[in-house]
Design goal:
This protein is mainly alpha-helical. 92% of the residues lie in helices and 0% in strands. It has one domain. The N and C termini lie far apart (171 Å).
């Protein structure tokens, strides 16, 4: 065979191979590559979206934590203030109750002193009457001399 014919025949076989490849093999390969590129593009877009959502969620979580810390601090402060107010109120009540108990005790003591003085006055008056009776060697009638005994009681 002639070298030119071989080259022409190889060129025709090559052209048929190129046409066959372009018609039947190349479109499925291109389609598969395009689909893979689309999947990769979608995956990257989803990853970027997830990354931004993660950043937003992290930012929101930080804000909520900060808000919760602020609320907790405020609640603790309010609780401490309320506890201090309760303690002060309890102290005030205790002081009032203590003052009332002291006042009642003083009043009771004053009443007892008054009763004791009255009893002592009566005893002194009775002793004075006995002493006068013995001095005069006769009986003194307390009902007859009630006015005199009353003045004696008030002087004592």
């Amino acid at each position: 065979m002639n070298i030119n014919a071989t080259l022409i025949l190889q060129a025709i076989v090559f052209a048929i191979l190129v046409w066959f490849t372009m018609s039947f093999v190349w479109p499925p390969i291109t389609k598969a590559l395009d689909e893979r590129a689309a999947k990769i593009r979608d995956g990257l877009a989803a990853a970027d979206k997830a990354k931004s959502e993660l950043a937003n969620a992290s930012k929101a979580a930080d804000e909520q934590r900060a808000q919760a810390r602020g609320e907790t601090t405020q609640l603790l402060s309010d609780a401490e203030k309320r506890a201090a107010a309760i303690v002060e109120e309890a102290k005030k009540r205790a002081e009032e109750v203590g003052a009332k108990i002291v006042a009642d005790a003083k009043a009771e003591a004053d009443q007892q002193v008054t009763r004791a003085r009255e009893a002592l006055r009566e005893q002194v008056a009775a002793l004075a009457v006995k002493g006068a009776e013995q001095i005069l060697q006769r009986e003194v009638n307390a009902s007859v001399h009630a006015e005199l005994l009353g003045r004696l009681k008030t002087e004592l």
